[in-house]
Specification:
Oligomer: single chain
Order of helices and strands: EHEEHE
Structural class: alpha+beta
CATH architecture: 2-Layer Sandwich
Strand order of the largest sheet: 2-3-1-4
Strand content: over 45%
Length: about 90
Protein backbone atom coordinates (compact mmCIF):
# COMPACT_ATOMS: atom_id res chain seq x y z
CA UNK A 1 0.00 0.00 0.00
CA UNK A 2 1.07 3.55 -0.65
CA UNK A 3 0.93 6.53 1.70
CA UNK A 4 -1.39 9.38 0.64
CA UNK A 5 -2.51 12.70 2.01
CA UNK A 6 -5.67 14.48 0.98
CA UNK A 7 -6.86 17.94 1.83
CA UNK A 8 -10.41 18.97 1.13
CA UNK A 9 -12.36 22.15 1.77
CA UNK A 10 -15.98 21.81 2.85
CA UNK A 11 -18.61 24.54 2.58
CA UNK A 12 -18.61 26.72 5.70
CA UNK A 13 -22.39 26.75 6.12
CA UNK A 14 -22.90 23.08 6.91
CA UNK A 15 -23.59 22.04 10.48
CA UNK A 16 -21.15 20.15 12.69
CA UNK A 17 -23.11 16.89 12.41
CA UNK A 18 -23.07 17.10 8.61
CA UNK A 19 -19.32 17.75 8.63
CA UNK A 20 -18.78 14.74 10.91
CA UNK A 21 -20.88 12.59 8.58
CA UNK A 22 -18.92 13.75 5.52
CA UNK A 23 -15.59 13.01 7.20
CA UNK A 24 -16.79 9.55 8.22
CA UNK A 25 -18.09 8.89 4.69
CA UNK A 26 -14.70 9.72 3.14
CA UNK A 27 -12.92 7.63 5.79
CA UNK A 28 -15.26 4.70 5.11
CA UNK A 29 -14.52 4.82 1.38
CA UNK A 30 -10.81 4.29 2.06
CA UNK A 31 -11.47 1.51 4.58
CA UNK A 32 -13.98 -0.31 2.35
CA UNK A 33 -11.33 -0.49 -0.38
CA UNK A 34 -8.86 -2.15 2.00
CA UNK A 35 -6.95 0.95 3.09
CA UNK A 36 -6.42 2.39 6.54
CA UNK A 37 -6.70 5.98 7.76
CA UNK A 38 -3.75 7.08 9.89
CA UNK A 39 -4.83 10.55 10.95
CA UNK A 40 -7.56 13.14 10.35
CA UNK A 41 -6.80 16.77 11.18
CA UNK A 42 -9.47 19.44 11.23
CA UNK A 43 -8.13 22.90 10.66
CA UNK A 44 -11.53 24.50 11.09
CA UNK A 45 -12.95 27.45 9.23
CA UNK A 46 -10.45 29.59 7.33
CA UNK A 47 -10.60 32.35 4.79
CA UNK A 48 -10.00 31.27 1.20
CA UNK A 49 -7.36 32.96 -0.96
CA UNK A 50 -10.02 33.56 -3.61
CA UNK A 51 -13.76 33.07 -3.91
CA UNK A 52 -14.95 29.55 -4.82
CA UNK A 53 -18.62 29.07 -5.75
CA UNK A 54 -19.45 32.40 -4.07
CA UNK A 55 -17.88 31.25 -0.79
CA UNK A 56 -15.18 33.30 0.95
CA UNK A 57 -14.46 30.75 3.72
CA UNK A 58 -14.19 27.00 4.01
CA UNK A 59 -13.65 24.27 6.57
CA UNK A 60 -10.32 22.54 5.95
CA UNK A 61 -9.79 18.84 6.65
CA UNK A 62 -6.57 16.86 6.10
CA UNK A 63 -6.59 13.07 6.01
CA UNK A 64 -3.49 10.84 5.88
CA UNK A 65 -4.10 7.27 4.79
CA UNK A 66 -2.59 4.15 3.23
CA UNK A 67 -4.37 2.60 0.27
CA UNK A 68 -4.06 1.10 -3.19
CA UNK A 69 -4.61 3.25 -6.32
CA UNK A 70 -8.22 2.03 -6.96
CA UNK A 71 -9.24 3.33 -3.52
CA UNK A 72 -7.75 6.72 -4.35
CA UNK A 73 -9.63 6.82 -7.65
CA UNK A 74 -12.90 6.05 -5.85
CA UNK A 75 -12.22 8.72 -3.22
CA UNK A 76 -11.47 11.26 -5.97
CA UNK A 77 -14.71 10.35 -7.76
CA UNK A 78 -16.76 10.84 -4.58
CA UNK A 79 -15.07 14.18 -3.87
CA UNK A 80 -16.02 15.38 -7.36
CA UNK A 81 -19.70 14.50 -7.03
CA UNK A 82 -20.08 15.69 -3.43
CA UNK A 83 -21.89 19.00 -3.28
CA UNK A 84 -20.37 20.00 0.05
CA UNK A 85 -16.72 19.80 -1.08
CA UNK A 86 -15.45 23.02 -2.65
CA UNK A 87 -11.94 21.80 -3.54
CA UNK A 88 -9.80 18.73 -2.91
CA UNK A 89 -6.35 17.40 -3.65
CA UNK A 90 -4.87 13.95 -3.15
CA UNK A 91 -1.09 13.63 -2.96
CA UNK A 92 0.99 10.46 -2.89
CA UNK A 93 3.79 10.75 -0.36
CA UNK A 94 7.13 9.15 -1.14
Amino acid sequence: MRQYETMYIVRPGIEEEQLDAAIERFKAIVEEQGGCVDRIDRWGKRRLAYEIDKEREGQYVIMRFKAEPPAVQELDRVFKISGDVLRHIIIRED
